[in-house]
Amino acid sequence: MSAETRREIGIIAGRSVRRTLRQPALIVPSIVFPLILLAVSSSGLAAATQLPGFPADSYLDFALTVSFVQGALFAAITAGSELATDIESGFLDRLQLTPLRPIAVLIGQLAGAAVLSLGASVVYVGVGVVAGANIKTGLGGVAVLLLLSLLVGIAYAGLGTVMAARTGNSQAVQGLFPLLFVTLFMSSANIPRSLMSVDWFKTIATYNPVSYLVEGMRSLIITGWDATALGKGFAFALVIGALSFLAASRSLRTRMERT
Fold first, then answer.
1. Among candidates 91, 97, 124, which has minimal Cα distance to 109?
2. If residue 243 lies in a helix (H) or strand (E), which one and from where to where?
3. CA distance 106 to 110
4. Contact 175/193 with Cβ under 8 angstroms?
5. Cβ contacts of residue 79 below 8 Å, gap of 6+?
6. Within the chain, where are the H helices?
7. Which are the contacts of 123, defined by CB distance < 8 A and separation ≥ 6?
8. What are 175-218's pLDDT values in tens digits?
């Protein structure tokens, strides 16, 4: 990557971060909503820890990582909405009058969502520890947890940019949230796959990549340094991110060629 391309990415990234931080309506829900769901599930499903074979003594420890994935869902909507707004307002058309490369637009647009995802993850960890969560891997595990959550946030943000580049409509991007939330619900987010008694649900959860994202982060809290779970978590985050980036790059290039 040339120095000029890096400079262009920095310009777009700076704009994306500033625009995100200036919109409390984006920041507050992405932090508050997952924490509310965490509080409800931790109290309402606490009895699940009494099931034979349940991997944690506290449901708070088990459910904490779900907040990170929920935060990533908001990152997807943030990244997609920002790009869709630029398309609707004609800003993307004006960019084409400059030497700015499409790859700089795509990568730079992800910066705001990445900052939002990372900031929310720091809050989740802090609130979880204050509420009594026990992270078995210690400070090193917290650092890896934040790194993995950041990768997941960027991967989901890539999905948002795909929708934005294809539709050019911010309302269509908003409609992506329920679909992504369903994938979280149909995973091992709320109960371990080993304890699922409904075969069809267990099959879906097993083939659902979200299960491995959640389990990778969860292992750092309730298990310790589990290389297998972590490897799968990072692998799926990188694969989803790479595929979404390629799809978004192609869609954005096609859109910019048409205009």
1. 91
2. helix 227-258
3. 7
4. no
5. 109, 110, 112, 113, 157, 158, 160, 161, 164
6. 3-21, 24-44, 59-89, 91-95, 102-131, 138-167, 170-174, 176-185, 199-207, 209-222, 227-258
7. 31, 35
8. 777 888 888 889 988 888 888 888 899 999 999 999 999 999 99
Q: How far apart are CA 50 and CA 44, in angstroms?
A: 13
Q: Tell me the C-alpha distance between 141 and 229, whole Å.
A: 13
Which residue, chain included where needed, has tokens 């307002």? 89
For residues 214-231, give the mean pLDDT.
Answer: 92
In contact, 27 and 113? CB cutoff 8 Å:
no
* pTM for this model (two decimals): 0.88
CA distance linking residue 187 with residue 214, whole number of Å: 9
Q: Which residues, other chains included, contact 60 with Cβ-Cβ below 8 Å and sequence gap of 6+?
A: 38, 42, 128, 131, 132, 133
Residue with tokens 């984006």: 26
On the 0-12 / 13-18 / 19+ scale of CB atoms within 10 A, 48 is middle
Coil, helix or strand for 82?
helix
Total residues found in the chain within this entry: 259
Q: What are phi and psi of 148, to 5 degrees?
A: -65, -40
Q: Rounded to whole angstroms, how far apart are CA atoms 37 and 201?
A: 22
Mean pLDDT across 23-47: 83
Phi-psi region for residue 208, left (φ > 0), alpha (ψ -120 to 50) or beta?
Answer: beta
Token pair for 12: 């777009």
| Neighbouring residues of 64: CB distance < 8 A, sequence distance ≥ 6 | 38, 124, 128, 133, 218, 221
Q: 221 burial class (0-12, 13-18, 19+ CB within 10 angstroms)?
A: buried
